[in-house]
Design a protein that fits this description.
With about 375 residues, the chain is α+β, with helices and mostly antiparallel strands. Helices cover about 15% and strands about 45% of the residues. The protein starts with a strand and ends with a helix.
Length: about 375
């Protein structure tokens, strides 16, 4: 049976009360460290830097040392080492599975909430996990958000915790921290350089920093919510999107993506030359959601101040609408793959929408929905 490698990145900086550790709040799995599976023949340190970037967006990092090497699979568990069908789902390599029963050729496992049979040689029982200490020397905010299409779409909050305090991670990761904690407390760390989250060019009470993780663009931006009274000139607005409600107050979401990744989003898109925002909204909702706009109201704007890559320093703005729509048979013209109708509560719980900007849109749209149905 194959052996595969796992890696965990302990990213630190020196805060006011001592060393701080970068963690993220996974919407379903709890407080976690950047961790994952090493690629074939991938160097351990390269893998630690890659996982750190993919799960936090931090890229100006320096390897300090490998702290420890631990068994990756505990008794009664195994690591899936190639894509495998389990319970009607394709589980990618690297996932930890609980082995419920096994014989000489197959194992009955539970992984990611599903059960099924898997070939025994698709499980690794002698994998190891490398704990790697990485330090951040560049400026970074005290908290920011990461969004990824992986797993149907997720968004999580990254932040810093004092290493010496009682940091509580998800149950499977807490033992890694206990192994590494003494080293992290004693090690030298660069002083924290805090990057403020501030968009001084607009009047707003809500700005966050967002990182779009690979396989998305790997870009970062400040994202500000602007109420309608403080929106930009019409010619500076590039896109229109809608929290669109049916007559029975169900929110319309559309699935985008490809055979590898699919995620749920608000219908909308880019303006074409000469279009008003309302024209763009009507065209995009018809094309993407197969929904006819009956009534609409602009409830705010999303302003993106881009921080890296080719758009660094640039600003783009989306107009965000509430809309009343009539759903037609779903026959999309372009990139959407499915449509669903959600209650407002279910929309708030979507993992990809778990950030303050999207939650603000849902709040403003719900207010508009109440006004237009009263």
């Amino acid at each position: 049976m194959a052996a595969i490698g796992k890696v965990t990145a302990f990213i630190t900086r020196l805060g006011a009360n001592g060393p701080e550790l970068c963690v993220f709040d996974h919407p379903s799995a709890g407080v976690q460290l950047p961790a994952g599976t090493l690629g074939p023949d991938e160097d351990v340190c390269d893998g630690a830097l890659r996982e750190a970037f993919e799960e936090t967006g931090l890229d100006d990092l320096q390897i300090r040392c490998e702290v420890a090497v631990l068994p990756a699979a505990q008794p009664g568990t195994g690591i899936i080492d190639r894509p495998s069908e389990v319970g009607g789902r394709t589980i990618p390599p690297g996932y930890l599975a609980r082995v419920l029963a096994q014989d000489s050729s197959q194992a009955h496992i539970e992984v990611e909430g599903v059960q099924g049979l898997i070939q025994l040689d698709a499980l690794s029982f002698d994998a190891v996990r490398h704990l790697v200490h990485v330090v951040l020397e560049a400026a970074a905010p005290d908290e920011w958000y990461v969004t990824t299409p992986d797993g149907g779409g997720h968004c999580w909050r990254c932040h810093w915790l004092d290493v010496a305090d009682t940091v509580t991670l998800t149950a499977s990761q807490q033992p890694w921290l206990e192994v590494a904690r003494h080293h992290l407390v004693q090690a030298k760390h660069p002083p924290a350089r805090r990057r403020p989250i501030l968009d001084a060019d607009v009047q707003t009470d809500l700005t966050i920093e967002m990182f779009w993780a690979p396989p998305w663009s790997g870009t970062r931006a400040l994202v500000s919510w602007l109420d309608p009274a403080y929106g930009p000139r019409d010619d500076l607005i590039q896109r229109a999107e809608a929290a669109a409600f049916t007559e029975d107050s169900r929110l319309v979401a559309v699935a985008e993506g490809d055979d590898r990744f699919t995620w749920w989003s608000f219908p909308g898109g880019r303006r074409e030359p000469g279009e008003s925002l309302e024209d763009t909204l009507r065209r995009e909702l018809l094309e993407e959601a197969c929904a006819q706009v009956k009534l609409s109201e602009c409830v705010g704007f999303q302003r993106f101040t881009h921080l890296n890559c080719e758009r660094a320093g640039g600003v783009t703005t989306d107009a965000m609408f509430w809309a009343r729509v009539e759903a037609r048979p779903f026959e999309p013209k372009f990139e959407t793959r499915a449509r669903r109708e959600l209650s407002l509560g279910a929309a708030r719980d979507l993992r990809l929408w778990a950030n303050p900007i999207t939650q603000r849109l849902l709040t403003r749209a719900a207010d508009a929905e109440r006004r237009h149905t009263s």
